[in-house]
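We were asked to recover a plausible sequence for a given structure. The inputs and outputs are reproduced exactly as logged, with field labels preserved.

PROBLEM: sequence recovery
POSITIONS: 241
GIVEN STRUCTURE:
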């Protein structure tokens, strides 16, 4: 069962541009991005976040130069190895969503070990999207759905969770760093009513204060889910009385 609280998803963009602006190789940006992940994960529970989904590597990222892809996969591997014990100690449950058949055997084994070791964590559900494509996941779920006898949104969401190796509640807040303003094939089904925040801050610069500000902006917004605002509804009722 998912813990109660906010589901925040983050598209961690801007690592390469951050490095290039400083005359550094792109790998330096990716390594700095890992430190930003650590900062955000530490801060999340105290900010009322129960589920945190981070876009680590998209299915389209395979098109990047092979040396960069190799480095990114190595960073994911190293991050899982070094963080599994601290996660377990602090009640953080980790799961990896996305395809696994294109990952190396070693990385798959590390993923599975981390998921088992942290499986009882209740303080935060940390989801890392690796080799992830929302459209492909929805397509694969649709291909399986014909076998399901209960035809409903909830049952489709369960099948989608099976395809992704993990399910979670709908996204409340989606943040994208780096200045771009698009979803880039990330959690399209789950973000149907998510509040969106786009920040020019590059991911390596993002920290607990930035996350806190985004949560504050989220809480200041009125989420209507297709309904009229409460004030407008009240006016309509008075007018008909």
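RECOVERED SEQUENCE:
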């Amino acid at each position: 069962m998912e813990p109660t609280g906010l589901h925040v998803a983050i598209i961690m963009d801007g690592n390469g541009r951050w490095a290039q602006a400083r005359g550094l190789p792109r790998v330096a940006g990716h390594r700095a991005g890992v430190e930003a992940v650590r900062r955000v994960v530490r801060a999340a529970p105290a900010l009322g976040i129960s589920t945190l989904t981070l876009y680590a590597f998209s299915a389209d990222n395979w098109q990047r130069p092979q040396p960069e892809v190799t480095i990114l996969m190595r960073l994911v591997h190293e991050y899982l190895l070094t963080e599994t014990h601290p996660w377990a100690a602090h009640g953080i449950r980790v799961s990896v969503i996305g395809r696994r058949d294109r990952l190396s055997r070693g990385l798959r084994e590390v993923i599975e070990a981390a998921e088992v070791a942290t499986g009882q964590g209740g303080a935060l559900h940390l989801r890392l999207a690796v080799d992830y494509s929302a459209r492909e996941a929805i397509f694969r779920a649709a291909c399986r759905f014909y076998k399901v006898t209960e035809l409903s949104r909830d049952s489709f969401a369960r099948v989608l969770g099976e395809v992704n190796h993990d399910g979670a509640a709908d996204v409340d807040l989606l943040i994208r760093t780096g200045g771009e303003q698009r979803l880039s094939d990330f959690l399209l089904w789950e973000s149907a009513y998510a509040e969106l925040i786009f920040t020019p801050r590059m991911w390596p610069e993002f920290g607990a204060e930035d996350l806190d500000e985004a949560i504050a902006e989220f809480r200041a917004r009125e989420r209507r889910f297709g309904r009229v605002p409460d004030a407008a509804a009240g006016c309509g009722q008075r007018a008909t009385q």
